[in-house]
Write a structure and sequence with these properties.
CATH topology of the largest domain: Jelly Rolls
Radius of gyration: 34 Å
Shape: rod-shaped
Mean pLDDT: 86
Number of helices: 3
CATH class of the largest domain: Mainly Beta
Distance between the termini: 64 Å
Number of strands: 19
Oligomer: single chain
Number of domains: 3
Order of helices and strands: EEEEEEHEEEHEEEEEEEEEEH
Strand content: 35-45%
Helix content: 10-25%
């Protein structure tokens, strides 16, 4: 017979060991004896039951805020301050940064196709190595000539993080990712369906999100929260909460039950024997009284 032994584990980033400081996207939680290797354990399952994720991370981060360009054989690197932008505020920030680096430029956006156009009296090349390339709309080197306006290849993309993944090495499971087409330690993914500075409230509504735990013991839990490109998020010191259900499927130990039955049988026999001895002693005492 198999029965389920459930344990609720609540994690809050305010109380874990922060491995990346105020980013609060990589933490370690120390426990004692969450799971021990016991003979009656048949399988162990892990489920993220719910999570509260603040949308406190930015669209433009330290991983995608660089634009590199070459003018007159000199490479220039400009950096946009991290934060949330719309097309107007980003164009303003880009224009100021180009001017600060010595290149006067006019940047416009098409209301029809959403693509940025660069116009300047200078000739320069936007480099594909720019970490902001995918956001601005180019993936290869773009030559911007001083004689005409240059339109980038793809639309401006300010969607930001579309989903987050909750990962753990300690809660080892079998998962797969198209990033390098390899196995992954992802427990679940959560769509970001709220605007910046709101909160995503995730509730697990499917058994599909229940995973077999590979480890037989568990004393610590590590949690990493990343975007779809596997970059650790920066929660800007805002705290998140995650609730996990540890389900242990145990089997009744038949040999233990047999031993228990034997114990009670021996106990019953001993009691009967004591009762018989007690009755015999009582009769002997009465007989001795009558003789005397």
């Amino acid at each position: 017979m198999v029965y389920t032994d459930n344990h609720l584990i609540t994690l809050n980033s305010a109380y874990g060991q922060k491995l990346n400081g105020s980013m609060k996207s990589q933490l370690l939680f120390g426990f004692t004896g969450l799971l021990q290797d016991q003979e009656d354990i048949e399988n162990t399952f892990i489920t993220i039951t719910n999570a509260q994720i603040p949308v406190s991370f930015y669209t433009i981060t330290s991983t995608n805020n660089n634009v590199s360009y070459v003018k007159s054989s000199i490479t220039y690197n400009i950096t946009i301050p991290v934060g949330n932008y719309n097309s107007s505020s980003l164009i303003s920030a880009l224009t100021s940064s180009f001017i600060s680096s010595g290149t006067t430029i006019t940047i416009t956006i098409s209301s029809i196709n959403g693509k940025l156009s660069f116009a300047s009296i200078s000739t320069f090349t936007l480099k594909a190595s720019s970490t902001m390339g995918l956001i601005l709309g180019f993936t290869t080197d773009i030559l911007c000539t001083g004689s005409s306006s240059t339109t980038l290849t793809y639309p401006l993309n300010l969607l930001g993080v579309k989903k987050v993944s909750i990962k753990s090495d300690a809660l080892a499971i079998s998962a797969y990712s198209s990033i390098n087409f390899s196995t992954s330690n992802t427990l679940t993914t959560i769509p970001i369906d709220q605007p910046p500075f709101n909160m995503v409230s995730y509730v697990n509504q499917s058994d599909m999100n229940t995973n077999i735990l590979q480890s037989r013991t568990l004393n610590t839990i590590d949690i990493s929260i990343v975007d779809e490109n596997n970059n650790l998020l920066d929660f800007n010191n805002c705290d998140w909460s995650i609730s996990i259900c540890l389900s242990i499927h145990r089997t009744n130990n038949i040999s233990n039950n047999v031993d228990l039955i034997k114990f009670f049988s021996i106990l019953k026999e001993s009691k009967t024997e004591l009762n018989q001895k007690s009755e015999k002693n009582s009769l002997d005492q009465e007989l001795e009284f009558l003789i005397n």
